[in-house]
Amino acid sequence: MNYSEIMVRYGELSTKGKNRQAFIGRLHGNITKALHEFPALTIRPKRDRLHIELNGEDSTAVMARLSKVFGIQSYSPSVKVAKEMAAVHEAALALMNETVPEGSSYKVYTRRSDHTFELDTNEMNLNLGDFFVDHRPDLKVQMRQPDFTLRVEVRREAIYLSTQTILGAGGMPVGTAGKAMLMLSGGIDSPVAGYYALKRGVDIEMVHFFSPPYTSDSALNKAKQLTTKLAPYAGYIKFIQVPFTEIQETIKATVPEGYLMTVQRRLMLRLTAALAEKRGGLAIVNGESIGQVASQTLESMVAINDVTTMPIIRPVATMDKTEIIKVAEDIDTYALSIMPFEDCCTIFAPPSPKTKPNLDKSRYFESKLDVAGLMERALAGVKITEIKSSDEFMNQDQDLITELL
């Protein structure tokens, strides 16, 4: 079908009162970023809907991108018709013939913002209903829960017809809840945590620790590719790679084996908090799930969290592993996450880490390190990459990503 427009309905924005206009503005910006590859589009936000005029762009490709924009309740591809009933009848029949199978139930639902039009909403519903009795006698009128609804929007400039209502991603527009830093490993859980943070309107930047030569370029590229899977939800995401080799080697040489993991994660958290303070982040997000591994017992969380007062958000903390895997499959990060490239969390991992580390001992062992110096040198070696949401970009290698030094 040659659609002329996609009509977007807002999600939770309807509850936002005086902030509504700011939320609509943010959603408008996010949709514009998500659709940057379609230059012919005209995007018009209004108080209750947002209209995307296709101007010849591929509606299927545009809707595929819209499906990942948080803050959208639903959207409908629409056909623009002149405000003459003969034209409406012709276009409505063509649309119904293409999208509504024989024997389906249907109803007509009209909204009219142009009150000068010759037919009111009820008259339009009856007019089209009578028309289909003659031209689609196989269809059954059903006012409650029909298989299809022919939606008619009478506006000043034209009439718009649609038969599909496609559910959007829901949630809140990314950026309306501030910025946070996501601690991105190469595992299954942290990308899922990032997805949930984005869904609640949090703008995230990825923080990934790498330790060459112990971790490979493949492991680093894997983390960047995981970021490309989440980038469409935000338009683009900053990827921050933090060199961690010196810190891990120093901890390995200084700290007792049972506390290697605890002290290492304390330094990771310190560095992430420092980056957040430098870059305007208000919180830290990670993929910890209570009790799955030694570092995620409540006792470990106490010993590790001790280094910062910044809020730490754990979206998957109470989810079962099977639940997390299901979401990872849905957002297409699972296959990447299980690729066998070692990251900082797995190298130097002791065979028997403390599952209930003592807070005072953790502080004591960390005090043996030159924490300030180690952090200063690590932060000096940080590299930042901007990862955008485009099919071509997502399938390209690291060398096509713009480095923002």
TrEMBL record:
Its EC number is 2.8.1.4. Pfam families: ThiI, ThiI_fer, THUMP. CDD domains: PPase_ThiI, THUMP_ThiI. ATP binds at M183, L184, H208, F209, R265, G287, Q296. Gene3D superfamilies: 3.30.2130.30, HUPs. This is Probable tRNA sulfurtransferase. Its main location: cytoplasm. Keywords: ATP-binding, Cytoplasm, Nucleotide-binding, RNA-binding, Thiamine biosynthesis, Transferase, tRNA-binding. The keyword tRNA-binding applies. It is found in: Cytoplasm. PROSITE patterns: THUMP. It catalyses: [ThiS sulfur-carrier protein]-C-terminal Gly-Gly-AMP + S-sulfanyl-L-cysteinyl-[cysteine desulfurase] + AH2 = [ThiS sulfur-carrier protein]-C-terminal-Gly-aminoethanethioate + L-cysteinyl-[cysteine desulfurase] + A + AMP + 2 H(+); [ThiI sulfur-carrier protein]-S-sulfanyl-L-cysteine + a uridine in tRNA + 2 reduced [2Fe-2S]-[ferredoxin] + ATP + H(+) = [ThiI sulfur-carrier protein]-L-cysteine + a 4-thiouridine in tRNA + 2 oxidized [2Fe-2S]-[ferredoxin] + AMP + diphosphate. Pathway: Cofactor biosynthesis; thiamine diphosphate biosynthesis. Belongs to the ThiI family. Catalyzes the ATP-dependent transfer of a sulfur to tRNA to produce 4-thiouridine in position 8 of tRNAs, which functions as a near-UV photosensor. Also catalyzes the transfer of sulfur to the sulfur carrier protein ThiS, forming ThiS-thiocarboxylate. This is a step in the synthesis of thiazole, in the thiamine biosynthesis pathway. The sulfur is donated as persulfide by IscS. Residues 60-165 form the THUMP domain. SMART domains: THUMP. The gene is thiI. GO terms for molecular function: tRNA-uracil-4 sulfurtransferase activity.
